[in-house]
Design a protein that fits this description.
Function: Phosphorylation of dTMP to form dTDP in both de novo and salvage pathways of dTTP synthesis.
Bound molecules: ligand Z5A
Distance between the termini: 22 Å
Structural class: alpha/beta
Strand content: 5-15%
Helix content: 55-70%
GO molecular function: ATP binding; dTMP kinase activity
Number of strands: 5
InterPro entries: P-loop_NTPase, Thymidylate_kin-like_dom, Thymidylate_kin_CS, Thymidylate_kinase
Radius of gyration: 17 Å
Catalytic activity: dTMP + ATP = dTDP + ADP
Pfam families: Thymidylate_kin
Shape: globular
Strand order of the largest sheet: 2-3-1-4-5
Order of helices and strands: EHEHHEHHEHHEH
Largest sheet: 5 strands, parallel
Length: 216
C-alpha cells in the first residue's frame, strides 16, 4: 500500500446527497482538530481534470462518450489529480479531502453501467489510485436524489440517466460499504442538513480518535 504522511478522506455517494455542502463542514472540523487540509473534487481538481470534467458532464446532445471513452476520461482525470495534487499533499502531511474518488467509479461505471470490478481495476492499475483512509458515503434513495437534482434544474449528462440506473448505483454503494466496513461508512443523507452534519461529525470524530490513539 502507498505510504503517506497525511490522511486521505473521501466524501462519496448519490447525486444531490449534500457532499458539496458537507465537505465544507468536514474541512472546518479537521482544521479545528489541528489538521492542515487540501480539498479536491473528481472528476476535476486540476486544470486538465476540469477540462475533462466539462467533456464528461456536458449535456447529452453535445457530447456522448462511449462507455470506454467515459472510463478513459475519468481515469485520465484521476491520474492527473492523484499524481500532481493528492500524492504531493499527502507526502507533505496534509489531510486531503476529496469530493468523490474511486468508489464513484465502482458505483456509477461498475454497478450503473455494468463494468466488471476486474476491468475497473485494470484501468486503475495504470493510474495507481490511493486507498482512502476513510470514505463517507452519502446515502439517499434514488428517487429523492433525482428529485433534488431536478429541483436544481439543468441536469448534466449523467444526471439525465433514469431511475433504474441510480438504483443500481445506490446498490453498488451499499455493497461496497458492506465489503469494506472498516474504511467505508454510510451516512443517511435523507435527513435535514444539520442532522447530516451531526452524522459527519460523529463519523469523523470516531475515526480521528482511533487514528490518534493508534499513533500514541
Ligand atoms: N462520476 C462517475 O460517473 N464516475 C466517477 O468515477 C466519478 C464521477 C468520480 C460528478 O458530478 C458526476 O460524475 C456524478 C458522478 C460522475 N454524476 N452523477 N450523476 P457532480 O460533481 O456535479 O455531482 P455530485 O458530485 O453528485 O454533486 P451534486 O449533484 O452537486 O450533489 P452534492 O454535492 O452531493 O450535493 P449538494 O450540491 O450539496 O446539494 C445538492 C442539492 O440538494 C442542493 O440544492 C442542496 O441545497 C440540496 N441539499 C443538500 N443537502 C440537503 C439536505 N440534507 N436536505 C435537503 N436538501 C439538501
Amino acid at each position: 500500500m502507498y505510504e503517506r504522511k497525511g490522511l486521505f478522506i473521501v466524501l462519496d455517494g448519490m447525486e444531490g446527497s449534500g457532499k458539496t455542502t458537507q465537505i465544507k463542514i468536514a474541512e472546518k472540523l479537521m482544521r479545528s482538530w489541528g489538521y492542515e487540509v487540501v480539498t479536491v473534487r473528481e472528476p476535476g481538481g486540476t486544470e486538465l481534470g476540469e477540462q475533462l470534467r466539462k467533456l464528461l458532464l456536458a449535456a447529452p446532445l453535445e457530447v456522448r462518450p462511449t462507455p470506454v471513452a467515459e472510463m478513459l476520461l475519468l481515469q485520465a482525470s484521476r491520474s492527473q489529480l492523484t499524481d500532481t495534487v493528492i500524492k504531493p499533499a499527502l507526502n507533505e502531511g496534509y489531510c486531503v479531502i476529496s469530493d468523490r474518488y474511486t468508489l464513484s467509479t465502482y458505483a456509477y461505471q461498475g454497478s450503473g453501467r455494468g463494468w466488471s470490478v476486474a476491468a475497473i481495476k485494470t484501468f486503475g492499475y495504470l493510474v495507481h489510485p490511493i486507498t482512502p483512509d476513510l470514505t463517507l458515503v452519502f446515502d439517499l434513495p434514488a428517487q429523492l436524489s433525482m428529485q433534488r437534482v431536478a429541483a436544481r434544474g439543468n441536469p448534466d449528462r449523467i444526471e439525465s440517466e433514469g431511475l433504474d440506473f441510480f438504483e443500481r448505483v445506490r446498490r453498488g454503494y451499499h455493497d461496497y460499504a458492506a465489503q469494506q466496513s472498516s474504511r467505508v461508512k454510510l451516512i443517511d443523507a435523507s435527513k435535514d442538513a444539520s442532522a447530516v452534519s451531526k452524522a459527519v461529525y460523529r463519523a469523523l470524530h470516531g475515526f480521528i480518535r482511533k487514528y490518534e490513539s493508534a499513533l500514541e
